[in-house]
Write a structure and sequence with these properties.
heterodimer, A: Immunoglobulin-like, four-stranded mixed beta sheet, B: alpha+beta, Sortase, Chain: A, 4 helices
């Protein structure tokens, strides 16, 4: 009986809680309904915005194209940097050279670290020779920063002007950057990059240029190419000399007795048709590599190695055959003699 | 006497004549080979003299210009390893330098590229570059070309001097015989050798292949 009473009390308690639960359920249903309405409204707004954009005929990316910026951090206060737009971005995501850099003959779609480094070295020499218009006015490092904004999508080169300091000339490494870029799948339009510490220009009076061909068999290779020696310092940039490289001088040349206090670079005056050029430099060695576009490397591993032997194998054969014939002659003669004797 | 019997009696003369003819042919062939080998030796000696005159002294590393220092040794320099080997032109042919094997008494010029006409004058570069440590040189087995190399043993020193006067020192590390169709093995890049020389075996059916490692620098 007692247990029956307790069960009834417990049931009554549970019953008394229920009305509260129903109220909460009703509140949740109400708030869910409000959220649903907001969601519908948001979707309608997004649709409306998309429609507006479609009607305007301007893609989203292009609208943001002019919103790129580059911030260059440098420890060299007072150093001057100039920004050049080397290539513009195409609709398919590739880059093509701008008008000012069209004759540079460089590969702008190799975005690897090595590719961008080679591009920087090549273009800094090209700029020294051709002096194209910069994308924006030169900036001086103030509070450790240089900044360029409102840049369109493309490939940019930041080139530092050599700086004289304590009787030495300091050279800045060129910085190549493309905008926009992607980090973890997110498109970034603002680039923060750091300039390496400038390097002292070597105190040498001789610079050598070497030509390297990467064109397989070399078919279609020009008989010669012209190479310009460019010098730069904090005040000027000019072509000092032009030399012809060919098989006659083993595709290399050494400039001697050059005045010191300049950064020396070499670049081709005209890139051969069907080739790209890449300049690399190590101290006083400058290598200009011409790579044939779409070179298919075919290895010649079929056929035979050259026949580098004289006709010696036939000597013992001839001697043996000759001796065999002589033996046959002796045998034939002796057999003929025996036959004659038998008949007699 | 019947014609048949007369023919039988004269048979031994035919054998004698044929035998002597074959022996004479063997003798002519030997004389021709010796003469051809001698001519090749003379031609390469003449070229070598001209080449040695034109090859400059090795660049001085203490020179002011780093440009000259770079020429001291382009091998192992990643910036210059793709550079074409410099050449010197003599009598219409371009040479990349000369090869020396003191223990075999050989000093031979090496042509930039090969064909059968060139091989009669001097050993020729078959493929590769001294700067990339994959140079392969083909030479005729003339007595004054690559024939004496066949008797060299591993450890023998071989030197190559390029057209800029830079000397590269090697040591024979291995000698193998490859079939004439095994181009892949002949030209393959390997860390086991830096220079390959090859010539025909006596029968001409295979190639004596001499692999050498550089000893003048740490790889």
């Amino acid at each position: 009986m007692i247990s029956e009473k307790l069960r009834l009390i417990d049931k009554a308690k549970r019953m008394s809680v229920r009305p509260g639960c129903d109220r909460r359920d009703q509140e949740m249903k109400y708030s869910n309904g409000r959220r649903g309405r907001w969601r519908i409204l948001s979707c309608l707004l997004v649709l409306l915005c998309s429609l507006c954009l479609l009607c305007s005929g301007v893609p989203v990316a292009a609208q943001e194209s002019g919103q790129n910026s580059i911030r260059l951090h440098s420890d060299t206060e007072g150093a001057q940097f100039t920004l050049y737009q080397v290539a513009q971005k195409n609709d398919d995501g590739t880059f093509s050279l701008t008008k000012d850099f069209a004759s540079a003959g460089v590969e702008v779609n190799d975005l690897s670290t090595d590719g961008l480094e080679a591009l920087g070295t090549t273009l800094s020499a090209y700029i020294g020779k051709n002096q194209p218009s910069p994308a924006a006015a030169a900036q001086t490092v103030t509070d450790g920063v240089c900044q360029w904004s409102d840049l369109s999508d493309g490939l940019y080169l930041v080139l530092g002007t050599p700086k004289a300091e304590n009787g030495n000339l300091l050279e800045f490494s060129p910085v190549v950057a493309y905008l926009p870029y992607t980090v973890d799948g997110q498109e970034q339009r603002s680039l923060d990059t750091e300039e390496k510490a400038p390097a002292e220009v070597p105190q040498t009076t001789q610079y050598s240029v070497y030509k390297v061909w990467k064109d397989g068999t070399g078919s279609g290779r020009p008989a010669s190419v012209k190479v310009a020696l460019v010098r730069r310092n904090s005040a000027e940039s000019s072509v000092v000399d032009t030399q012809t490289l060919s098989a006659d001088n083993n595709w290399s040349y050494t400039w001697k007795d050059l005045p010191q206090g300049y950064v020396y670079q070499a670049v081709e005056t005209g890139v051969p048709n069907g080739y790209t050029q890449a300049v690399s430099r190590d101290g006083a060695k400058i290598v200009i590599t011409n790579t044939k576009k779409s070179t298919s490397v075919t290895s010649t591993v079929s056929g035979k190695l050259p026949q580098t032997g004289q006709l010696w194998w036939s000597v013992p054969v001839l001697v043996l055959a000759g001796l065999a014939c002589l033996l046959a002659a002796v045998w034939t003669k002796s057999r003929g003699g025996r036959e004659n004797t038998r008949k007699q | 006497m019947s014609d048949k019997k007369r023919k039988k009696r004269a048979g031994w003369k035919v054998w004698l004549f044929t035998g002597l003819l074959l022996l004479a042919a063997a003798l002519v062939l030997v004389l021709y080979n010796v003469w051809e080998s001698d001519q090749a030796g003379k031609r390469s000696s003449k070229v070598l003299s001209a080449l040695e005159e034109q090859i400059p002294d090795p660049p001085d590393a203490s020179n002011d210009g780093a440009g000259d220092i770079s020429q001291k040794d382009s091998s192992g320099d990643s910036l210059l390893e793709d550079r074409q080997m410099p050449t010197i032109e003599i009598d219409g042919y371009r040479y990349i330098g000369y090869l020396e094997c003191a223990s075999a008494g050989l000093k031979l010029p090496v042509m930039e590229e090969w064909d059968y006409k060139r091989l009669k004058v001097a050993p020729c570069r078959y493929t590769g570059s001294v700067y990339k440590n994959n140079l392969v040189i083909a030479g005729h087995n003339y007595a004054r070309h690559f024939s004496p190399l066949r008797w060299q043993k591993p450890g023998t020193e071989i030197d190559f001097t390029d057209a800029e006067g830079v000397r590269y020192t090697y040591q024979i590390s291995d000698i193998e015989v490859l079939p004439p169709t095994d181009i892949r093995d002949m030209i393959k890049d390997s860390s086991d050798w830096d220079l390959t020389l090859f010539t025909c075996t006596i029968g001409g059916q295979a190639r004596y292949t001499i692999r050498c490692v550089r000893t003048d620098t740490e790889k």
